[in-house]
Amino acid sequence: MRRNKPKGVFPLGIIVISVVMFFAAIGTLTFRIGNHVFGVFERTLPVDPLVYNAFLFPDILLSLLLIIGAAFLIQLRKSGLFVTLVALGMWLFDILVVLGITGRGHIGFLGGTLVFVAFSLYYLWTRREIFV
Hints:
Elements: H1 12-38, H2 49-54, H3 56-73, H4 78-102, H5 107-126
Helix pairs in contact: 1-3, 3-4, 4-5
């Protein structure tokens, strides 16, 4: 049986999800801009450079949605829930595409991300009534 949230207590899960989303977005933007503009990072996927660079725009869009979602999510706005669900769906797709390309080669890194995204989707969906 689910208990109602006591007044004045902010859900810790919302804070954790927002912080992780924000830092994941900043990390992705730093990596993609540093790689594409300055060439300071090496490619991380064993694919043709054209395929690798095709992920640039979706990664930037995903990062922007993660930042916007985190900002609105922490305010408990319905728009934050919507943007976050879209961003997490994109992130899930991105993880599955990378796993499809690399096989199990990146499961050590992507496994934790996959668990975080799945947990976040479940957590937010089951607590969607707290968003106004």
